[in-house]
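Please fill in the sequence for the structure shown.

STRUCTURE ENCODING:
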């Protein structure tokens, strides 16, 4: 079979299996690979230590697979037909990122790639070698997405396709056979800066460059310990991931709706009630999120996020749940429960928090509570100073008469 007809049959098969996009690029070292090392050096990977492992390999796949010649990039649309706007309305509820409403994409894409690989093996010349990737190894997947022509790097760093927008997952087959290659996708962001302007935490240090440490997606999924206090207000009601920089992107306005059944939202994952989730046990968490990407946050990370959203809600109805979480077995959970109580009750939380301090032994929680109390004291001092100044002003005024 000629490389032209092999390429065509591979692409036809990818679409037949259900991928929405497919493109092919030669293996290579592209200019964007240079940004990666710089990005790591600036500390933008935060605690994602796996990103720092073998950066050379991530930059050039031939270090891992020396015979590699071609990368077949496949894109799968996860834009289900649910509306976005609900999240703004109801403070009782938390927002789970669109990408996590259905089945774990790693598994869905891997299944499809395996079918495609079997097909390729059946039609390709003997001696073919190939590997499958979907966020499973050191590969800059979006760089290959761009050079395979399935999308460009938006200023929000997402891969955007002109026809179906950016609600796409990507996966690749890397092989030692040569195929016909596509041209890279041209950048179509133009003068737009909507994603940069809309990001609540200012995570885009400059167009095309994200500081993960500021990204809500990182804070609610990847970060294991406490969410930095100064960022908690900005997390809002995002309890797993964040969609804001994609929601505002004009290329998603008319994004095609997917018919992939695996991504249809599980009822309880679409804009769920916060109160129903804050008391999940380890076992309940495991059962509820089996087969879902949400398991990545682990129970403690997920409950931590719920408590932050409760604290940001302004709703005093959550106070009993927070008091219950103050007894949680996990110190990260207790620390965030203390913070959220303070957010909802202000000075009234003093009694509960100081009583808790008497029985709390974990330094992480003690530090949180002490810092809240110091803040309360500073506020008290400010109010007293303010009253004192007003009294003095009054005295001075009175002395004039
Ligand atoms: C680490 C990671 C994260 C981190 C860091 C995000 C990031 N932008 O890198 C965090 C946890 C924040 C994250 C969040 C999300 N992620 Co993520 N993530 C990854 C992962 C594992 C690695 C990405 C990576 O290598 N980053 C390193 C940095 C350097 O890459 P970069 O920021 O994209 O920078 C590139 C360009 O911007 C360019 N560049 C840099 N500077 C400049 C300057 C100029 C002038 C130019 C022109 C270019 C340029 O070069 C860089 C490449 O070296 C990939 C899977 C993979 N193996 O590729 C999934 C992946 C990128 N994530 C994905 C998804 C779906 C998400 C979320 C939407 C999930 C969610 N809703 O919460 C968010 C989106 C947030 C966002 N705006 O990026 C998809 C993206 C699909 C798409 N359409 O783009 C991927 C590809 C997984 C997959 N297989 O489908 N993710
Ligand atoms: S996912 Fe949210 S926090 Fe992260 S860069 Fe986009 S808008 Fe900002
Ligand atoms: S919002 Fe605008 S700048 Fe950002 S990725 Fe979309 S088109 Fe590009």
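FILLED IN BY: designer on duty
SEQUENCE:
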């Amino acid at each position: 079979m000629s490389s032209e007809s092999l390429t065509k049959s591979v692409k036809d098969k990818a679409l037949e299996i259900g991928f929405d996009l497919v493109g092919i690029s030669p293996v290579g070292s592209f200019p964007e690979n240079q940004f990666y090392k710089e990005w790591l050096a600036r500390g933008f990977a935060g605690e994602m230590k796996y990103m720092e492992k073998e950066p050379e390999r991530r930059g050039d796949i031939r270090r891992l697979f020396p015979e590699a010649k071609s990368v077949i990039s496949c894109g799968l649309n996860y834009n289900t037909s649910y509306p976005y706007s609900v999240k703004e309305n109801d403070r009782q509820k938390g927002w789970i990122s669109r990408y996590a409403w259905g089945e774990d994409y790693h598994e869905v894409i891997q299944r499809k790639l395996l079918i495609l690989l079997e097909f390729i093996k059946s039609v390709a010349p003997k001696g073919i070698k190939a590997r499958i990737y979907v966020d499973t190894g050191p590969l800059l997947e979006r760089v290959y997405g761009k050079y395979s022509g399935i999308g460009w790097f938006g200023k929000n760093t997402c891969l955007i396709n002109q026809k179906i927008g950016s609600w796409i997952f990507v996966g690749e087959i890397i092989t030692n056979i040569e195929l016909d290659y596509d041209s890279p996708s041209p950048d179509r962001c133009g003068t737009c800066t909507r994603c940069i302007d809309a990001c609540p935490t200012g995570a885009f240090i400059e167009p095309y460059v994200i500081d993960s440490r500021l990204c809500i997606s990182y804070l609610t999924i990847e970060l294991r310990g406490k969410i930095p206090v100064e960022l908690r207000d900005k997390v809002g009601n995002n309890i797993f991931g964040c969609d804001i920089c994609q929601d505002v992107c004009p290329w998603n306005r008319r994004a095609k709706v997917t018919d992939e059944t695996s991504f249809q939202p599980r009822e309880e994952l679409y804009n769920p009630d916060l109160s129903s989730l804050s008391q999940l046990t380890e076992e309940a968490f495991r059962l509820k999120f089996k087969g879902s990407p949400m398991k990545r946050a682990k129970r403690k990370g997920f409950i931590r996020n719920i408590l932050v959203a409760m604290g940001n809600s302004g709703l005093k109805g959550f106070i009993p749940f927070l008091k219950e979480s103050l007894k949680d077995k996990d110190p990260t959970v207790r620390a965030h429960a203390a913070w959220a109580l303070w957010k909802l009750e202000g000075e009234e939380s003093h009694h509960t928090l100081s009583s808790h301090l008497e029985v709390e032994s974990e330094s992480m929680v003690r530090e949180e509570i002490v810092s809240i109390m110091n803040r309360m004291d500073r506020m008290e001092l400010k109010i007293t100073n303010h009253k004192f100044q007003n009294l003095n002003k009054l005295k001075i005024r009175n002395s004039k008469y």
